Amino acid sequence: MLATLLLSWMAGCDHQGQLFVPTPNPDYPFLQDLGEFRVIPAEEAGTANFTLETHPGADDEGRSGVHYGGLGAPEDPAYYGGATFTFEGTGGDVCVVLDVESVYWIQAWWPQADTSMYLYEDNYVDDGDIDLSVGLTAYYTGSPGVSMGDFALPYTDEAGVSHEIQFNECFQAGYLGDGVHSGRAAVEYCTIDTFGRAGVSFTAVLDTFTLPIDDSVAHFAVGVFDGDCTTITSSDRTLNECFFSQEFGPSQEGTGNVASDCDDPEQEWSYACLESKYCTTARKLNTYCEEHFDDEGTPCEDNGVHEPHDDTEESEGGDR
Amino acid sequence: MISFLILACSNPESIPEGDILGKLVVPKAAATRTVVSATDADGDGNLEYSTAEKTDVRLLGPIYLGAFSGIDTISFAYPHPSMGPVISADSRGDTFPYGGITAGRLDFACYEAVACKVTTGRFTDYDDIIDHFKNNLGRPIFDQYGVEVTSGEAFQQWCFEYFSATADYEMSFIGVDNLTFEEDGDNYVAEFTLNHTLRVEGMAVWGFMDAPELRSDVPDTNGNFTTCSSNGGREVDEYVTEFQEGRSYYDVLNHPGNYITYGDWVSDGESVVHFDDDLDQTEEVVVNLNIPYEAEE
With contact defined as beta carbons under 8 Å apart, do B213 and B71 qualify? Predict the structure, then answer.
C-alpha cells in the first residue's frame, strides 16, 4: 500500500508543464514595431527569391521589403505580444503575406495504405502561430511597439444601443466563411482593397498566438505585394508554406537556416533540408523516407514493416 | 392574450433582455402561386404537366423575424432593418439584430431530393409532403435509387431508418400540432415569441418570407429557398449516397438584403415595440408581411 502511494506521488510530480511556459529572449522582444513597409511591385515579386539570404530589401527611404524576424515571450505572460508595421495604400489591391515557422502536419497512418509505409515525423515543438490583421492606421487602437490593439470600434445604432465593429479588412476564408485565422505554422494572407485610399496609411498587426516550445521564439517572414493575392502566385509559386522559405530562424537544432548540401549526411536531416525536400519534391517526404530510412538519425517512422528506429537517438539530435 | 398578460408583469427587476410576444399576419396572396402538377393518368410512367393558380399554405417558405433598432426605407426597394456602417465595398452593413425567430424553419425531410426544400409547420403528414412536391412543385419525390416515393408509409419507414427514429413526433417537419398558421379571413396568422431579446423602447420588429423558387424545368433548384445553404448541414456519405442536408445561412437576419429575392414577401416595417418603466412589453406587436418584392428577376 505504502509503495503504491509513493509511486503515485512520484508520478504526480513527474510533469510540471514547465516545458510549455515560454521564456523571454532578449534578442526577440515580445512587442515590436517594424516600421514602414513598401509595396513590392509585381515585376519585382515575379522574379525575386523569397529566402532569408535573397529577398526584396528596403528602398532608399528605408521602407522594408520582405522582412524576416522573430517574436519572443514577455516577462509577464499576462501581456499579449506581437508586431505591427505600416504601408501606404496604392489605390488598388495589395496582398499581405505572413508565414510563421515552420510546417505542421497531422501525422497519422493507416497500415493498409501503401503511401504511408514511411513517414517523416512532424516536429510539433518547433511550430509557432501568429495571426494577421490589417486595417486603416486611423482605426488601430494599439500603440506600436508599446501595446497591442485591434481595429474594433464602438458603433451606436439609432436606438442608442452600442455594438462593436471590427474594421479589420484582412478577411481570410474558413469553413464557416470569413473571419478566421490559420492554425499554427500555416501561412496567412489576404487581399486589401485600397481603392480611393492611395497614400493612406494601413497598419498590419501580427498577434502572437503561440510560441514554439523549443525556443520560445516565433520566427516569421512577412511582406506586402502589389495586386490581389491570386495575381502574385504562379504555376511554381503558390501561397503556402513554400512562398517564403527559411523563415524558421537560426535555432533549428543549431544547423542554421541554410543548408549548403542536403546530400551531406551532416546536413540532410536539418530543417533547411526538410523544407527543401518539402517544397521541391512535390512534398513526397514519405518517398524520401523510403529511400533514406536506414540512414543514421532519420526522423522517419514506419508502420511496422521495417525495424523502428531508436527514439532515444532521435531525441538527442540529428533531426529538425 | 393570457400569456401576454403574464409577460407584462414578469420583469420586476427590469432585466433588459426577455421574450417579446407578437402576432404574424401573412396575406393569403403570399401563398398564391402558379403551380405545376405532375400526373401520370395512363400509368405509363410518363408524367404530364398542367399549371394552375393555387393558394396553399405549403407554398409559404420559412419566415424570419427579428427585432432591430429601426427601419431603413431608402436603401432597398422594400422596408429593410437599419444597418450599421458598410465595411467593405462588396458587402452591406450589419443590421445588428436584438433577437430573432422563425415562423417555420428549414428542415431536412429524409430524402436528398427534398434537401433545402422543406419548411417546418407546413405539412400534416408524409402524404402531405408527397402531394406538395407532385402537385405544387411538379416534381415527384424520388428516393436514392431513383424510385418515386408514392406512399406515406414508405416515406415514414425510410425516415425512421434514416434518423434511427421510432415515432412520427420525432419528425419536426410534419404533425398537425406543429402547423404554424391558422386561417383568419384573407390571412394566415400565427403567434410568435422572440426569445431572450434585448428590450429597447421603440425598436422595430421586422421580417420576411423566403418564398420557394417554382421552376419545374430546373429540378435541382425547383422548390429551393434562397436562405438555404445546400453546401451546409450534415454531410451524408453512406455507400453510394453522398450529399449534404442543407441548412439556413447563419447571417440571414444580419444581412437580410442578401437573401430577399423576387417573389418574397416583406413586412411593412411599421411594427414597433413599446415598454413601460420596468421594461415590460405594453402591448402585443403585430407584424404584417404585406409587401411583395416584385423587382425584376
Answer: no
Q: Work out the angle at residue B227's Cα, subtended by the Cα atoms of residues B225 and B231, and round it to the nearest 5 degrees.
A: 90
Instruction: Give the number of other CB atoms < 10 A from CB of residue B36.
Output: 21
Q: Say if the Cβ atoms of B98 and A161 lie within 8 Å.
A: yes
Q: B70–A157: do the CB atoms touch at under 8 Å?
A: yes
Whether residue A56 has pLDDT greater than 70: yes
Chain A, chain B: beta-carbon pairs less than 8 Å apart: 40
User: For residues B98 and B197, what is the distance between their CA atoms, to the nearest angstrom?
Assistant: 6
**ipTM of this complex prediction, to 2 decimal places:** 0.82
User: In terms of Cα–Cα distance, which of B286, B203, B191, B227 is closest to B16?
Assistant: B203
Closest by CA to A210, choosing from A123, A149, A133, A128, is: A128
- Option in B69, B85, B87 nearest A159 (CB): B69
Task: With a cut of 60, say whether residue B196 has pLDDT above it.
Answer: yes
Residue with the larger pLDDT of the pair A8 and A288: A288
What pLDDT does A250 receive? 63
C-alpha span between B132 and B109 (Å, rounded): 13
- The residue assigned the cell 528596403 is A58
Nearest chain A CA: its distance from B69 CA (Å): 5
Using CA coordinates, name the residue in chain B closest to A162.
Answer: B96
Rounded Cα distance between B220 and B108, Å, is 15
Q: Which amino acid is at A207?
A: D
- Inter-chain contact B200–A160, Cβ cutoff 8 Å? yes
Task: Give contacts of A195 with chain B, Cβ < 8 Å.
Answer: 89
**DSSP3 helix / strand / coil % (chain B, rounded to 5):** 15, 30, 55
Residues 6+ apart with CB under 8 A from A288: A120, A277, A281
Candidate from B69, B89, B250 with C-beta closest to A157: B69
CB atoms A161 and B84 under 8 Å: no
Question: Taking CB atoms and an 8 Å cutoff, what residues of chain B touch A161?
Answer: 69, 96, 98, 198, 200
Separation of alpha carbons A117 and A130, rounded Å? 33
What are the tens digits of pLDDT across the range B27-84?
A: 999 999 998 888 887 878 787 888 889 999 999 999 999 999 999 999 999 999 999 9
What span, in angstroms and rounded, lies between the C-alpha atoms of B154 and B14?
A: 53
Instruction: Write out the H or E segment, with its range, that includes residue B62.
Output: none
Distance, in Å, from the CA atom of B141 to the CA atom of B155, rounded to the nearest integer, reads: 10
Placement of cell 517544397 in the chain: A279
What's the Cα-to-Cα distance from B83 to each of A159, A185, B91, rounded to whole Å?
A: 12, 38, 11
Beta strands, E only, chain B = 17-27, 32-39, 48-55, 63-68, 71-72, 80-81, 99-103, 106-107, 118-119, 182-184, 187-198, 204-209, 228-229, 235-238, 241-244, 247-248, 265-266, 285-288, 291-292
Q: Which residues contact B201 (CB under 8 A, 6 or more apart)?
A: A159, B273, B274, B275
B157: its cell numbers: 419507414
Quick check: B26 and B181 in contact, CB under 8 A?
A: yes
The residue type found at B2 is I
Residue B205: CB atoms within 10 A of its CB come to 27
Q: CA–CA separation, A297 vs A313, rounded Å?
A: 7
| Among B residues 71-90, those touching chain A with beta carbons less than 8 Å apart | 82, 84-85, 87-89
